[in-house]
């Protein structure tokens, strides 16, 4: 057997530059039930746990119906979550901010197509977490294809004008996760506004009357 | 054989016991033999197994109990009658058909001897069934005659009487005789002859003396009492032994002879009746000052009737999980610390959470994901059959902490008039003691991991020469299709000698790429990916690698081994996912971190206080590494080979603290040991494995688990971290009581194992068991489980051997047995004059034997010269993880005689069963005209008697028959006999596939092989200064009495 003996003296760490896709998760939107996840997600992400928590919160948020955009990018720290929602399934990936949005969404589209093809019929009836964990091998494989932005394949995809991602909204994670809370605030504020404006009106009327009265008194005095 | 005797009619019932005994076959008895105590009813018939000599003693009545005890399970009433037999039961096995077969019935008559008191036979009718099984039934009948005999007791007489009657009865005698022989020369001779064949019977013989008189007592030692015609079921058999007092006052059993002869002993009977105890007794007749113990070896209790499953609690707790998952040392929890302190055995449990269930008894999987798993909100107990629903089904009360919990809406069901949920039958978790819950996301810190197997293979020169690499590579390759978890399964390989070789197995390659890292002080992983690959994707590359692995290193002359750095490297590759790390190590690690040096060659250390240091890891690296591995969900299995010392004590720590297992193949050569490695490695790779698991055992208030024993790492005080656990691993735990008295009637135990199945499902396996709380020490003894006690004893003794001398370990076992028996004796000494009898609870009748076997096991035996250090450590590690039944088999292996089976023209399945009669483990069981198979679960020894027909040997071995056996491997030959023998071995292997028994052939008298292969393992014999079974019993008995 012809095995090349490569004596490696130095650890060369490719991971930092090349591993652009950090984490991939697939969940059911209706109840936030996780269906599949990339194999070794979060390997070189600091605070991977925190980001996973954010993703969970995001799914919860989606389940409660606050965000209905089917495609969205959410910035968090040095990373971005990109997700697409299709057929009540949310496909989400976390990438470096520098990773082209276009590639990220194409990656998610690939996952979506395969996932629907393989598991489509059973998605609604899935009754346990990670019911489609076997899909992780496909995630793994696909992720590798998208890992390096400099490959011919990915450059070609980047140049593909047919796939447009410009109109996909980008928001901040705090904003998104806080959105539910803010809506509540807005309605509270508006109701406060209503009541306060009523008070203002009343006060204004009083004031007017007062002024008129004062004026008359002044006139009288005069 | 003699058919029924006239006498029979008289004692219809009684006979049975005997019968049972002889025919090991009868299940009830047999079971009992080993187990004892099974009866649910209060009575346990005791087993009085050992009565041996005593029979005469007395109390005929006594005898009965034993039998009854056993029986209880099946036929309570009958049992009583039979009472006696039980002790015999133990023996019985040997007795089994085979013996009979061999000896033509006629022979027996000659024997005559003592009309074995078989009185018990009386019971025959009931037993008959059993009898039927055994060819011997007829023999039973004779028993009646025996009755008569018993009276006459004197052996001589007996003989006369009996002659006419059944041979069977004689047989027993034969057994007895041996013991006596010392006493009476005359008898001895005949006996000797008989002995081999009929060991089992012996007991009965003993009984003889007892008395027929007792009729009323049925139970009594079977032998005596048995006769009792009446079925007075109520009496359980007591042990004949006790009652005896009258006859022979002498403390020491000696009586036996005399007593026997004097039927007179009967008198005691009356008193006996009262006893409803379950205990066995043994007369120990050693005359002070003499060496000979007047103990009849044949009458000693032995586990010859197959596995004893204890199910003492019966119906009341029918929803308990099967004992294969959880066995308590006693199924009766003491209510106070003071009571516990009088129970000198360990109080605890042996848990085997994933034990293999026979077909049809698989653990049901229940999906609660939508409602969430129902658990007590305070103590976190899982819903189980013992929770109670109240408030029209809206609340449930936790059986462990008594908290009232709300029933979630989705789980609500109405209660019927009796308070049972109307949907009970659709809720397996409310009717079964063992269930698997599908875990919701809260039980996951990450997605379920894929099954992952990482191989770390030593390729230094010794590994190459032994052929290990080739066998390993072939086996792995042959198992690729069966690795669990397709299509997610991940695999990876590292090989090492003085450098570390990584393999890139990227699926797009056609050949793996090898990368060599030679900097052992600063290990790094040369590639971020593709060292660990998905098997289904990289299959061709993996196969190409395995195909070329043996040849790649065939010319390697590197003698060094950098195991430590290699383990670190593997750890780095695996740490992301966890999984199973299999290490194949052929030499002592010599380079880098964790290098070891030759130790154990300094004889001066042995026997000193420092001796234990050789049995613990030399370098803390191994334990630390194991702890790290556990943290990252990596379980390590160590396969150690090598013809020299490789320090299993150190290497084993890797497996011990990561929940793994050690396999040791001393002097491995692929030609002779390859099959064993192949089988065991394949089993390791393909058995269902639970990944990234944690286990906790909960129990009711007032008690708690205070220590755990086995291969694992504790994550918190009571949480066992088990990176990879499977059906071959069991864990021991000891219980302690809190200050306060237990006020509840029942204590509950719940084992919960949270794990990831290979299919990627996260599950919680829950086993629940309920056990009564008792205030009486007698109850504790009655419900004791010898198997679980022995298992804990073994674990404790092995742990002790890691910090003390072996001798201390052994004596601590002995001391605890003595204390337990003494306490038991005190319990009964007041009521019954015990004279010189040794008494013990029927449930613990095998405890002394297993204690003896334990101290003679390779882990604890002797000193430096008796067992190689590596062997000793390897056995110790293995015993720490073995489930109860496998441990018992290792301690008291089975010995089968097969030549008759092979010679018979054609065989059917039931004949096959007949040959499965275990013989007592003593050289006396070996007949030089026979062919025997010894099976301890780890290896076979096939023993060829000196006088075995050459024809048989030729048929089995072909041309090899004349060659030195150490060089011969038993292979298939195209002869009927060879096929049959292979069939027998195959069946024995199928009984338990966790290890593969390699076949060793040995000829009688072929030293030293016969010695170390077989004779040293005959635990009942005196070997190299250790006590034989009888001496051991006498010793224990004396110690019990000394401070009684």
Automatic annotation (TrEMBL), chain A:
Places the protein is found: Endoplasmic reticulum membrane; Golgi apparatus membrane
Membrane topology: Single-pass type IV membrane protein
One Pfam short name: Longin
Coiled-coil region: none
Occurrences of domain Longin (ranges): 25-139
Keywords, alphabetical: Coiled coil, Endoplasmic reticulum, Golgi apparatus, Membrane, Protein transport, Transmembrane, Transmembrane helix, Transport
Name of the protein described by the UniProt record: Longin domain-containing protein
A GO cellular component annotation in the UniProt record: endoplasmic reticulum membrane
Domain V-SNARE coiled-coil homology: 154-214
Domain of life: Eukaryota
Family assignment from sequence similarity: Belongs to the synaptobrevin family.
Example GO biological process: protein transport
GO molecular function: SNAP receptor activity
PANTHER family attached to this UniProt entry: VESICLE-TRAFFICKING PROTEIN SEC22B (PTHR45837)
Major localization class: endoplasmic reticulum
UniProt KW Transmembrane keyword: yes
InterPro entries, A to Z: Longin-like_dom_sf (IPR011012), Longin_dom (IPR010908), Sec22 (IPR044565), V_SNARE_CC (IPR042855)
Source organism of this protein record: Salix viminalis
From TrEMBL, chain B:
Region described as Disordered: 1-191
Protein name, UniProt field: Protein transport protein Sec24-like At3g07100
Biased composition (Pro residues): 114-129
Start and end residues of each Sec23/Sec24 trunk domain: 448-684
Family according to the record: Belongs to the SEC23/SEC24 family. SEC24 subfamily.
Localization (cell): Cytoplasm; Endoplasmic reticulum membrane; Golgi apparatus membrane
InterPro entries for the chain: ADF-H/Gelsolin-like_dom_sf, Beta-sandwich_Sec23_24, Gelsolin-like_dom, Gelsolin-like_dom_sf, Sec23/24_helical_dom, Sec23/24_helical_dom_sf, Sec23/24_trunk_dom, SEC23_SEC24_subfamily
Sec23/Sec24 helical domain: residues covered: 785-888
């Amino acid at each position: 057997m012809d095995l090349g003996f490569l004596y490696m003296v130095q650890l060369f760490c490719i991971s930092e530059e090349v591993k652009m896709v950090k984490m991939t998760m697939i969940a059911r939107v209706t109840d936030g039930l996780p269906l599949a996840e990339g194999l070794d997600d979060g390997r070189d992400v600091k605070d991977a746990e925190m980001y996973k928590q954010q993703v969970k919160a995001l799914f919860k948020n989606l389940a409660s119906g606050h965000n209905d955009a089917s495609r969205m990018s959410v910035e968090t720290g040095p990373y971005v979550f990109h997700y697409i929602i299709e057929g009540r399934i949310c496909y989400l990936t976390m990438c470096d901010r520098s990773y082209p949005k276009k590639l990220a969404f194409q990656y998610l589209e690939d996952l979506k197509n395969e996932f629907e093809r393989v598991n489509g019929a059973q998605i609604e009836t899935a009754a346990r977490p990670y019911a489609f964990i076997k899909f992780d091998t496909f995630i793994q494989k696909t992720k590798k294809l998208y890992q390096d932005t400099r490959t011919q394949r990915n450059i070609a995809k980047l140049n593909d004008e047919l796939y447009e991602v410009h109109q996909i909204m980008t928001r901040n994670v705090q904003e998104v996760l806080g959105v539910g809370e803010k809506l509540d605030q807005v309605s509270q504020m508006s109701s406060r506004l209503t009541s306060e404006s009523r008070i203002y009106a009343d006060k204004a009327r009083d004031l007017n009357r007062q002024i008129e009265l004062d004026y008359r008194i002044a006139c009288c005095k005069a | 054989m003699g058919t029924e005797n006239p006498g029979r009619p008289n004692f219809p019932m009684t006979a049975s016991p005997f019968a049972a005994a002889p025919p090991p076959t009868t299940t009830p008895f047999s079971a009992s033999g080993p187990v004892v105590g099974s009866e649910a009813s209060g009575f346990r018939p005791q087993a009085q197994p050992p009565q041996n000599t005593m029979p005469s003693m007395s109390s005929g009545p006594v005898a009965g109990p034993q039998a009854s005890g056993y029986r209880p399970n099946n036929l309570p009433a009958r049992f009583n009658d039979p009472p006696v037999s039980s002790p015999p039961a133990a023996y019985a096995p040997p007795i089994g058909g085979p013996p009979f077969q061999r000896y033509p019935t006629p022979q027996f008559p000659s024997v005559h001897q003592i009309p074995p008191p078989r009185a018990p036979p009386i019971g025959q009718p009931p037993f008959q069934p059993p009898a039927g099984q055994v060819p011997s039934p007829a023999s039973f009948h004779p028993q009646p005659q025996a009755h008569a005999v018993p009276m006459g007791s004197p052996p001589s007489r007996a003989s006369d009487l009996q002659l006419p009657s059944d041979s069977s009865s004689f047989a027993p005698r034969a057994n007895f005789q041996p013991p006596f022989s010392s006493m009476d020369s005359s008898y001895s001779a005949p006996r000797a002859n008989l002995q081999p064949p009929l060991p089992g019977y012996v007991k009965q013989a003993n009984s003889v003396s007892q008395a027929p008189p007792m009729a009323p007592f049925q139970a009594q030692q079977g032998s005596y009492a048995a006769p009792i015609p009446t079925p007075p079921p109520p009496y359980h058999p007591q042990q004949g032994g006790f009652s005896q007092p009258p006859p022979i006052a002498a403390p020491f059993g000696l009586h036996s002879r005399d007593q026997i002869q004097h039927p007179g002993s009967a008198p005691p009977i009356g008193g006996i009746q009262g006893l409803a105890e379950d205990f066995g007794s043994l007369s120990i007749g050693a005359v002070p000052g003499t060496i000979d113990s007047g103990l009849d070896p044949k009458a000693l209790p032995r586990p010859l009737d197959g596995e004893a499953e204890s199910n003492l609690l019966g119906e009341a707790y029918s929803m308990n999980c099967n004992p294969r998952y959880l066995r308590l040392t006693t199924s009766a929890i003491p209510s106070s610390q003071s009571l516990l302190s009088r129970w000198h055995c360990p109080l605890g449990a042996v848990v085997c959470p994933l034990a293999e269930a026979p077909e049809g008894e698989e653990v049901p999987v229940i999906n609660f994901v939508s409602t969430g798993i129902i658990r007590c909100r305070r103590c976190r107990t899982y819903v189980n059959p013992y929770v109670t629903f109240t408030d029209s089904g809206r609340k449930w009360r936790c059986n462990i902490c008594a908290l009232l919990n709300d029933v979630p809406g989705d789980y609500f069901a109405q209660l019927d008039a009796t308070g049972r949920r109307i949907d009970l039958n659709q809720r397996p978790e409310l009717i079964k003691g063992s269930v698997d819950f599908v875990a919701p996301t809260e039980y996951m810190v990450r997605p379920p991991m894929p099954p992952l197997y990482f191989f770390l293979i030593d390729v230094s020169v010794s590994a190459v020469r032994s052929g290990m690499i080739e066998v390993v590579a072939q086996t792995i390759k042959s198992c690729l299709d069966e690795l669990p978890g397709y299509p997610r399964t991940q695999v990876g390989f590292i090989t090492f000698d003085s450098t570390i070789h990584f393999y890139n197995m990227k699926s797009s390659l056609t050949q793996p790429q090898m990368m060599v890292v030679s900097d052992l002080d600063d290990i790094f992983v040369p590639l971020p990916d593709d060292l660990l690959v998905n098997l289904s994707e990289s299959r061709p590359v993996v196969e190409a690698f395995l195909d070329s692995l043996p040849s790649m290193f065939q010319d390697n002359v590197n003698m060094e081994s950098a195991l430590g750095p290699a383990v670190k490297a593997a750890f780095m590759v695996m740490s992301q996912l966890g999984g199973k790390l299999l290490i194949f190590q052929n030499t002592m690690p010599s380079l880098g971190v964790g290098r070891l040096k030759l130790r154990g060659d300094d004889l001066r250390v042995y026997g000193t206080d420092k001796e234990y240091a050789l049995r613990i890891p030399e370098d803390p690296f191994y334990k630390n590494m194991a702890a790290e591995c556990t943290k990252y969900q990596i379980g390590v299995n160590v396969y150690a080979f090598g013809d020299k010392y490789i320090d299993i004590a150190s290497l084993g720590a890797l497996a011990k603290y990561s929940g793994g297992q050690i396999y040791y193949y001393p002097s491995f050569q692929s030609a002779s040991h390859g099959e064993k490695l192949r089988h065991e490695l394949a089993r390791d790779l393909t058995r269902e494995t639970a990944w990234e698991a944690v286990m906790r055992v909960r129990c009711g208030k007032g008690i708690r688990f205070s220590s755990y024993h086995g291969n694992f790492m504790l994550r918190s005080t009571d949480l066992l971290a088990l990176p990879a656990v499977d059906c071959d691993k069991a864990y021991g735990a000891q219980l302690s009581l809190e200050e306060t008295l237990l006020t509840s009637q029942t204590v509950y135990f719940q084992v919960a194992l949270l794990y990831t199945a290979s299919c990627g499902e996260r599950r919680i396996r829950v086993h629940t068991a309920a056990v009564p709380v008792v205030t009486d020490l007698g109850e504790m003894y009655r419900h004791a489980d010898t198997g679980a006690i022995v298992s804990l004893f073994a674990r404790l003794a092995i742990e002790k051997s890691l910090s003390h001398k072996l001798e201390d370990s052994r004596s601590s076992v002995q001391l605890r047995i003595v204390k337990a028996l003494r306490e038991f004796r005190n319990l009964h000494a007041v009521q019954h004059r015990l004279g010189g009898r040794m008494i013990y609870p029927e449930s613990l009748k095998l405890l002394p034997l297993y204690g003896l076997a334990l101290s003679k096991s390779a882990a604890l035996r002797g000193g430096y010269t008796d067992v190689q250090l590596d062997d000793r450590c390897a056995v110790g590690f293995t015993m720490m993880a073995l489930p109860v039944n496998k441990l018992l088999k290792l301690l008291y292996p089975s010995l089968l005689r097969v030549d008759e089976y092979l010679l018979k023209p054609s065989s059917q399945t039931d004949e096959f069963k007949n040959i499965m009669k275990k013989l007592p483990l003593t050289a006396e069981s070996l007949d030089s005209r026979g062919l025997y198979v010894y099976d301890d679960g780890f290896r076979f020894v096939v023993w060829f008697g000196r006088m075995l027909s050459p024809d048989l040997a030729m048929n089995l071995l072909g041309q090899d028959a004349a060659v030195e056996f150490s060089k011969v491997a038993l292979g298939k030959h195209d002869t009927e006999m060879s096929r049959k023998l292979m069939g027998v071995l195959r069946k024995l292997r199928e009984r338990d596939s966790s290890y593969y028994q390699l076949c060793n052939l040995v000829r009688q008298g072929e030293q030293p092989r016969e010695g170390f292969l077989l004779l040293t393992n005959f635990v009942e014999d005196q070997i190299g200064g250790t006590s034989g079974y009888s001496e051991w019993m006498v010793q224990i008995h004396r110690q019990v009495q000394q401070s009684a």
